Amino acid sequence: MNKNTIIATKDLSKTFSNESVQQHVLKNLNMEIYQGDFTVIMGNSGSGKSTLLYALSGMDRPSLGTVTYYVRENGKGTGLRQLDKAIKKSGGKAEAEGIEISGFSNDSLALFRRMYSGFVFQQNYLNDSMSALDNVMISGLLKNKDRRALAEKAKKLLARVEIGEKDYRKFPTQLSGGQQQRVAVVRGVINEPRVLFADEPTGALNSQNTTNVLDILTELNQEGQSIVMVTHTVKAAERGNRVIYLADGVIADEIDLGPYLGDYKDDANPDREKAAERHKRLKDFLQNQGW
Known about the structure:
- The chain is of the alpha/beta class and 291 residues long.
- The chain folds into 2 domains: 5-260, 3-Layer(aba) Sandwich (Rossmann fold); 261-291.
- Helix content is 37%, strand content 24%.
- Strands 6-7-8-3-9-10 form a 6-stranded mixed β-sheet, with helices on both faces.
- Helix 4 crosses helix 5 (147-160), helix 4 runs parallel beside helix 7 (177-189) and helix 7 (177-189) runs parallel beside helix 8 (207-222).
């Protein structure tokens, strides 16, 4: 099956300098992210996982190389005229077949992320002085000024992740860690991003809350949401259909797992045997990479 490319990199490199020492974290990466995929990035500590995620998402700029988004539909895109004006003003360019973001000004990058990207981090970064609902709303208002319609949308999304009226009126400190992260996921998708970027989204959660958040991400992906997630756990990685393994700043290998088939340990799972085979394929792949 042919897949549509949504992000492509060319010779993507990132170097950090500290006095006279240079650390080459990413080295001439050429890769594509496909629409509708749940792409997982793995690797040992220091391999460049999060650095790659930030470069792909526009949260950081590469030292060399390009990152191009293919988010136009028939030459158009949501807010594209506004973005094109910002790009022209900043001296950047928006090509007809794609939007190359590496040379954007800070303002253009911020506008681009607002229109096309969503984010979920290991730390939820919720504002403790605002209710859960308002934390979602403030992100949504960056793109949608219709407060009434936005509030209804936010409430429906929060209800979907089991954050009802009793809880969405609470401050983050009054919620459990799992509830806070579910609010953070809703905040990440409130603007219907073309790509949702998740950096260790379950890293600070216990086992049950990890499963809850992964279930939400899996459901979103099954509905068509493109996701790029960094993780260091097999439990999270097996939710992806594609796993890319980084080693010393380069792509060592990748594996196509196909769609997630449920928990291989669940006796009630009708696809348990296939899920177990899939899990073993992932484990064998990771072990071959020295994980």
